Amino acid sequence: MVLGENVFPVPHGYAVSADGDPLGLLELIQRGAPHSVPCSTSPVPLTDVHLLAPIPRPPRNVICVGQNYHQHSLEFDASGYNSTPSNGVPDRPVVFTKAPSSVIGPGDVIPLHDALTTELDYEAELAVIIGRGGRGIPAEEALDHVWGYTIVNDVTARDVQRDHRQWFLGKSLDGSCPMGPFAVTADEVDLTDLLVETRVNGELRQSAKTSDLIFDVPTLIATISAGMTLQAGDVIATGTPAGVGIGFDPPRFLRSGDTVEISITGLGTLTNTVGGAAGTDHGASG
User: How far is it, in rounded angstroms, from Cα 270 to Cα 52?
Assistant: First the structure.
């Protein structure tokens, strides 16, 4: 079943509970909703709505995995941007996070943040949505905890990432986590051989299969949950293939007006355009 934040085709793009309160996808997942839920209203054409990210404001940081495709791990080490080179392939998953405020939806503008960075990069990623939480989840049971999957673009300010050594600031700029266009339930997705591709202004930049993952989804869930309780609605971005901007010589960073399209088999295409600077909002909160 394919769902967006517009979970059911009802007015205002929300599911409705038995008492009439609107529910988003996150609330449905947290309530343990099944993958298939009956709908008694007429569909609304996609042309009549603006899709939000499937989970527009995650309750916790988006959990991410770095250097999880063989060729990308090599290109990242060779780029000079990795403050802790792995000399090829990491022996354990490299885990970091992005702030919830970084999430935007399909069609939203990626801020250029040109007052802060001149090296904005793209990263196509398969993202896992946790449906049933837990700690110490064995790898052989990990997929039982998955609600579904979506696409994430792990937009990164490479100079900020490099200069601060820890990746959080370079990965957490506002608008640096496009997500969508849909969430697809786990029963509809075969993880073994999904094609992950990125196009920038129509030019193919990234193309790889999930079979090239160094650490597969069950291993990632087992590793992350070993000492930290995963919660329903948590999002795990599983890493990006080779072909990011820093992998070129010279590097090919995003510029204002660029259009980034990320496609994954069965999950649709996430499209966003790069805009101008995000500006400063001293009154922003929550």
Answer: 11
